[in-house]
Amino acid sequence: MPYLVEATLWSPGGPVALRLVHTLAPFPAYWREWSAALAAAGQSVRASGSSRVLMIGDFNATWGNGKFVALLHAGLTDGAAAGGRRPT
């Protein structure tokens, strides 16, 4: 994965798994690496063993991309969508 930092935040409600992500752009020359980065991000969520995960960063993806949607199906919620902004 081009950039993934894993940490644990301690909050009054208990621990929160924090993941900071920055993937390559999904250009044809980097497609395989980009796809692998999104898959690794999803694996990180599943491996955290926590229902409290905060993943932030630049995924270089939109809701129109199946790999990003698969990441959301791993248990994440798009913050912009949850805040009322329509996904693009």
Would you tell me the structural class of the helices and strands? alpha+beta
User: Mind summarizing the main beta sheet?
Assistant: 3 strands, mixed
Strand arrangement across the biggest beta sheet:
1-2-3
Q: How many beta-strand segments?
A: 3
How many helical elements?
A: 3
Q: Helix-strand pattern, N to C?
A: EEHEHH
* Tally of individual domains: 1
In quaternary terms, these chains amount to: single chain
User: What value does the Rg take, in angstroms?
Assistant: 13 Å
Alpha-carbon distance between the termini? 24 Å
- Which regions contain 5 or more consecutive residues with pLDDT less than 50? none
What is the percentage of strand-forming residues?
25-35%
Proportion of helical residues: 25-40%
- Morphology: globular
Average pLDDT taken over every residue: 83
Entry summary:
This protein is an alpha+beta fold and 88 residues long.
Structural overview:
The protein has 88 residues and is α+β, with helices and mostly antiparallel strands. It has one domain (4-82). It is built from 3 helices and 3 strands. It has helices at residues 31-47, 66-73, 79-82, and strands at 4-11, 14-22, 53-58. It has a 3-stranded mixed β-sheet with strand order 1-2-3, covered by helices on one side. Strand 1 (4-11) and strand 2 (14-22) form a beta hairpin. Helix 1 (31-47) runs parallel beside helix 2. The longest helix is centred in the middle third of the chain and has 17 residues, at 31-47. The model has no long low-confidence stretch (mean pLDDT 83).
